[in-house]
## 1
Amino acid sequence: NFLIDLHDEL
Amino acid sequence: MNIFRLVGDLSHLLAIIILLLKIWKTRSCAGISGKSQILFAIVYTSRYLDLPNFVSMYNTLMKIVFIAASYATVYLIYMKFKATYDHNHDTFRVEFLVLPSFVLALLINHDFTVLEVLWTFSIYMESVAILPQLFMVSKTGEAESITSHYLFALGSYRALYILNWIYRYTTEDHYDLIAIVAGIVQTVLYCDFFYLYITKVLKGKKLQLPA
């Protein structure tokens, strides 16, 4: 899932 | 994880700790905008609804700390040390920040789902959440040194994230335009303050705006 990958920052 | 992001996160954490300690030690939230702190609590709540999507122990821990600290700060300002809250100077109309951020999140997002729109809203909201605090400083014309340190640490965090995004773009080809544009807006809002901080506070003077 690219969105989960996208939000790997705080 | 790269050095810019790590130092950025630590700066963010430091800001939150400075603020909590300042309020706790002085038993006062004078000079602090409760409205900005409510906005930050909204920011962390709407962004970290993705807590079940495990990224790393580091991320999970930081998210929990940010959420807990933001609610603790709001509690100290509006409940425990309510008598010291300077509401007469905290008059920024937050609906002018919340509503446009929300509408923009509905219009410009990566994916039209509840979680994703709320994440996007939190990014837009965060970029302007400090405005009530900056407005309060400009209204009273001054800020305590400790409040200045808090603002400097909080502003530096997003500036360091911009370096992190440049680094990630060049090394991983990873980029998120929504976060980048909002992060730049957020950092630009602090520029005026950064200038005053470097030219005054670091030289031992109080942050005082020209009358």
Note: The mean pLDDT of chain B is 96.
## 2
Amino acid sequence: EHLQTQHVSIPAGSQLQYTFPECNSVNHQICFQSTCPKLGYAIQSWMYWLVGRGVLLEGVRVSSGMQFHYVLCGLFGRNVIRERLRDWRGDNGMNLQLFFYKPDLWWPNGMGKQSLYNVHITIDVKGYGESDAWSNLFGFRKIESHIDSATGGRLFKVNGQPIFIRGGNWILSDGLLRLSKKRYETDIKFHADMNFNMIRCWGGGLAERPEFYHYCDIYGLLVWQEFWITGDVDGRGVPVSNPNGPLDHDLFLLCARDTVKLLRNHPSLALWVGGNEQVPPDDINEALKVDLRLHPYFENSNEISKSSEDLS
Amino acid sequence: MAKIGTTRLDSGWLAARSTEVSHSGTQLTTTHPPSGPTSPWLNAVVPGTANGGLIDSVLATLVENKVVPDPFYGLQNEMIIDIADSGREYYTFWFFTTFQRNQHLDLNFRGINYSAEVYLNGHKKVVPKGMFRRHSLDVTDILHPDGQNLLAVLVHPPDHPGSIPPEGGQGGDHEIGKDVATQYVQGWDWMAPIRDRNTGIWDEVSVSITGPVKIIDPHLVSSFFDDYKRVYLHATTELENRSSWVAECSLNIQVTTGVEGNICLV
């Protein structure tokens, strides 16, 4: 399994953001690939093929990746390699990660298994011992969607496979908010049994709870989650009211950001939507788009994976 | 030393209408704690009970204690006074409980509708407005050394509960839209209005014990290459050092596959 430990020094009374660094083999692989992509990719593929047939041990592949790196340094000079690597990394510092070879992917209901991994993060403080721990189920999946110019509808892909969305509307579990895990599990399994693969959480209800998302992770229901804007109440109802949404836009964005942090690690979370039958006020909508855009690093990485797909 | 981790406060909660309680929050959590479910105090519906429910809205507690009829049957909702007619005070409620702890401790509310004042052992902390936000209060300094702590929470309804026109309609008079709260509570074509607009501690309450350094909101993202053969997991987290010295830490991440069937990891 994957285990990594990093040393972190945190000044007194302060708060910082920390990203786990990559394992070396990735470093070398990427640099190799970025230095001479066609040769690099061909050799990579060949090695994966050997690993896939059990001829080559994964560890050997990784270390040979590192050997390649040293050979390249010899051929092209360390600075060139370092330069290429820095180019690849970009200045967003987001290029740090744990490496998995052919992990079990998470699939929506009806497309495959909902494979989940336990991610466990702990922090030990020198002179104290274990200070805090956090764990979460995590599913490896890539969800893409775009508006189809021909039909105007939104098309979804999961792990590169197009998916026909069969979904249902969800208001909430109980009108008086008597929420329970048992009821969430029953309701969500029911949707899976009805052969649905998406649940849309209506903007006049709740930002659903981690228990709701947990069972959507388990049963493979993608979730379309709306923020708290509805056409009827926010500018399109009878009488027309609140054309500029809630009074306190900063409070709305604070709640939206905290909700995203609460729910963002669930593999079932597929789409954030501004509201029901209404676009939020411009300042809120723009802020949400900025907050929820794909991090620039992943834009770059799509380029790399695209180039490798082109190559393949 | 108690083990680090999070514990739900899911037992022994009491609730009472604020206009029927003469004591202040400081008195409730020092000299005059309620002794049990005797008037005006009721047993509050709590998380982790048989139905696994979370602490609910005020109305759910009143229904549970049969103070009001269940609004989901017949026209019984018409027999419950609406907040527009009763005023916000009528649905402003105290929630009270006790817990044992004396460590680096955070008191966590995963959802309060709509704002609240928290009293712990006589000390007051204000919980700001907003239904869809978490609150984590560092209460380490105000815990009782003997571990017996008294907690009282005064929960206020949304600022704009609105009123329900005779013809009903989608979202009543739409006033609730001025707040950052769920909007169906003013009634919709498929739903009668909720009389208290779901005021209350509507999601989990817990206490978490940590050492000097706390992990906050890790973010996990995966990226894919080579047709999903080569996959990377990016993990970012916030770390808070609440001690008065530099903390030298080992930060560990472990990823294990979920075990299936009757296989167990040793």
Note: Residues 60 and 167 of chain B are 26 Å apart (CA to CA).
